[in-house]
Amino acid sequence: MKIMPLFQPVCFLTAVFSVFLFCQCSQPAPEQSLFDKFYDEKPVQLTVEADLASLVADPAPDDWQAAGLALQKPDGEAIRFDGKVRTRGVFRKANCAFPPLKLKFEKEAIKQLGLKDYRTLKLVTHCQEDYEYEQFVLKEFLAFKLYNVLTDRSFRVQLANVRYVDSQQKMPAIERYGFLIEDDDELAERLDGHILGEEHGSPKTIDKPQYKLFALFQFMIGNTDWSLANRHNTELIQPNKTDLPMPFPVPYDFDFCGLVDAPYAIAPHHLPIEDVKERFFQWRGKQDEDFTETFALFQSKKGEMMRIVQDFDLLSEQCRTEVTTYLESFFEMLETPEKIVGR
Fold first, then answer.
1. N or C: which terminus of the chain carries fewer CB neighbours within 10 A?
2. Residues with Cβ < 8 Å from 48, sequence gap 6 or more?
3. What is the pLDDT of residues 53-65, one digit of tens each?
């Protein structure tokens, strides 16, 4: 994005000071982030132009490289940025033919647009060239959307039709669906809190109602690939308000869950399950904990969650049927809760 100067040069020091003072005092704090600006129920168009051949050939380095980034909303509003891109992740970075990416948008461009200074976004990519893998990405996107239905204390995600262009013209352009994940710090600010990193250790206290919801959701989608102690695929948010002293968990990265059922996903060897589609209730609280209210919440949201799946026509009919069937098996278990809390 080309940045134009805000003011023309002035000749007198007093005038410079006056302009500076005016800018400092009259500019309101930004109310919107880049993610807010492009957040839409429909897919946005995203173009990433960079030396993709080198990223794909050797995804191990975490070095940033220059990139052209363009976003277009469904209503046609579009902005192009100068930015940077790098690979990210652990398993998918090492095992995917096309690794997940992290995008960084130019600081001055964000400022000129009057947006909050959140400049990085994670991009979940298609992993392999086979179109079947695009369906796995869409199912993972659905998992985020299902958690959004249950609680605002969740990552927002934006579906995107992504066009990848190799700036060195060593590989053809690729177009696949992917999705952007809200910045970690933006999530924390939106929820009026701050992130507790791994250096804070295993949480000694936790917001119990939110932890119940978190654990039951992970059970619903068949996900055991998480840990509070080392923050594996989990952010722990500490509320800023002193009257809300206990942190709460926010999950992410669902590609190893049974609902997605990616070909590379395997069940953890330390758990008594053999397949990721086999559910295991990874609860770390009292075994006689009362989940009545949590069960009721999920039951009350069943219709909305099922509609989201059925209306998501980018997912093939077969995949929608598989996801619906998998979720129905969870709701059947809610009729006999001992099948969940007793596992």
1. C
2. 67, 68, 69, 85, 101, 103, 123, 162, 163, 164, 165
3. 888 887 666 789 9
What angle in degrees, to the nearest 10, is found between the helix axes of 208-220 and 292-311? 50
**For 141-193, what is each residue's pLDDT tens digit?**
999 999 999 999 999 999 999 999 999 999 999 999 999 999 999 999 999 99
| Domain shared by 170 and 299, yes or no | no
Instruction: Let me know whether 102 and 204 are in one domain.
Output: no
For 86-130, the pLDDT digits (tens) are 998 778 888 888 999 999 999 999 999 999 999 999 999 999 988
Q: Are 256 and 223 in contact (CB under 8 A)?
A: yes
Question: Taking the model in full, what pTM does it have?
Answer: 0.89
Residue 222 tokens read as 């068949």
Number of domains into which the chain is organized: 2
- Three-point CA angle 64, 65, 68, nearest 5°: 125
Instruction: Give the separation between CA 80 and CA 77, rounded to whole angstroms.
Output: 11
Q: Are residues 145 and 267 in the same domain?
A: no
Structure tokens at 166: 């190799």
Q: Phi-psi region for residue 192, left (φ > 0), alpha (ψ -120 to 50) or beta?
A: left
Residue 24 lies in a domain: no
Tell me the pLDDT band of 340, cut-offs 50, 70 and 90.
Answer: confident
C-alpha 191/C-alpha 334 separation (Å) is: 29
Residue 20 lies in a domain: no
Q: Is 89 left (phi over 0), alpha (psi -120 to 50) or beta?
A: left
- 162 near 48, Cβ under 8 Å? yes
Read off the tokens for 196.
């507790």
pLDDT tens figures, 252-306? 999 999 999 999 999 999 999 999 999 999 998 887 889 999 999 999 999 999 9
Rounded distance between C-alpha atoms, residue 311 and residue 150, angstroms: 18
- E runs forming strands in the chain: 44-50, 65-72, 78-87, 101-105, 120-124, 157-166, 174-181, 193-195, 234-239, 248-251
